[in-house]
Amino acid sequence: MHHITRINAIRGISLIETLVTIVIISVGMLGIAALYVESLKAGQTAVMRTRAVAFAADMADRIRTNQAGGVAYDVGPEAAGGAPPNACADTTLAPALICTPDEMALNDIWAWKTMVGNTDDAQFQRIGLPNATATIDRNPATVPVTYTITINWADKNDDLSYSISVAI
Fold first, then answer.
1. Of 70-74, 88-92, 143-147, which gets the smallest average pLDDT?
2. Mean pLDDT, the chain, as a whole number?
3. Rounded to whole angstroms, how far apart are CA atoms 149 and 88?
4. C-alpha separations of 74 from 7, 13, 71, 167 in Å
5. What are the two backbone dihedrals, phi and then psi, of residue 148, each rounded to the nearest 5 degrees?
6. Rounded CA gap, 5 and 167, in Å?
7. Which among 163, 138, 145, 143 has a CA at the least distance from the CA of 153?
8. pLDDT at position 9, please?
């Protein structure tokens, strides 16, 4: 009979075992939550990088289309702002005005930099990059001429950039 009492004494889970189990599960859940937050951050960074690649490709296409205005595409990081530099690129005008290649280049740069840096304009649906600067460096010493398009932006606690060199 003494033996039966002993079996009844070891049946069930003690309070300490329950608390240890809760602590272990809590630590695991905190790890999962931290992993989820990191994946969200990585996803946002990937979206910004994709935008930068698309913006650089857009400018490369603009330069390819207007090769006669090539020298005018050599620009530094100054920000675009205000109205377009020339009304000749406005396709809504009744008699369409004709741009010179340099005027078209200035309009391309204005429109491009407006999109790259635009983070709050409803017209562009916030497609820009935060604190972005964009430069185009033309190297006429190469054959064909090489353009290096660089976009820099701020991403959380890091400064990121994307650069592409295009021979046109």
1. 88-92
2. 81
3. 25
4. 87, 75, 6, 14
5. -105, 115
6. 89
7. 163
8. 55
Please state, in angstroms and rounded to a whole number, the distance separating the CA atoms of residues 126 and 83.
18
Residue 126 has pLDDT above 60, yes or no: yes
**Bridge partners (DSSP) listed for residue 158:** 155
Quote the tokens at residue 115.
Answer: 């999109």
Domain boundaries, the chain: 2-167
Measure CA of the first residue to CA of the last residue in the chain; give whole Å.
97
Calculate ∠ Cα 97-102-105, nearest 5°. Answer: 90
Cα torsion 103, 122, 64, 51: sign: positive
Tokens of 162: 């994307």
Q: Rounded CA gap, 150 and 154, in Å?
A: 14
Q: Using CA atoms, how far apart are residues 64 and 41, in angstroms rounded to an integer?
A: 35
Report d(CA 166, CA 30) in Å as an integer: 46
Residues 6+ apart with CB under 8 A from 76: 135
pTM attached to this predicted model: 0.71
Tell me the two tokens of residue 20.
Answer: 């240890």
